[in-house]
Amino acid sequence: MIITGFAAARARKLTPGQKDANRVLAVGRAPVEHSFAHLKNWRTLAKLRTDPTHATHLLRALLVLTNLEINR
């Protein structure tokens, strides 16, 4: 399932509840997009030829290491 935010139209503005929902989605999405940007810079995903389960463990480990380095 893909969860997307609400879009405003020229004739219809977003309600405060829809704006809050978009804000919650953005807060959760930002760290993930930032992490994938780092991985793309390392070209890790382009050369990864392995079992998806192993790839998931590898990517999680890389994200942990990245977050540790950033928080120093």
What does this structure look like?
There is one protein chain. The protein has helices at 16-41, 52-70. The chain is an all-alpha fold and 72 residues long.
How would the global form be characterised?
Answer: elongated
What portion of residues is helical? Answer: 55-70%
Low-confidence stretches: none
What is the SS-derived class?
mainly alpha
From the N-terminal CA to the C-terminal CA, the straight-line distance is 35 Å
Spatial extent as radius of gyration: 17 Å
What percent strand? under 5%
Order of helices and strands: HH
Number of strands: 0
Count of alpha and pi helical runs: 2
What is the typical, i.e. mean, pLDDT?
80
For the largest beta-sheet, the strand count, sense and barrel status come to: none
Write the topology of this structure.
Elements: H1 16-41, H2 52-70
Please sum up the structure shown.
This protein is mainly α and 72 residues long. 62% of the residues lie in helices and 0% in strands.
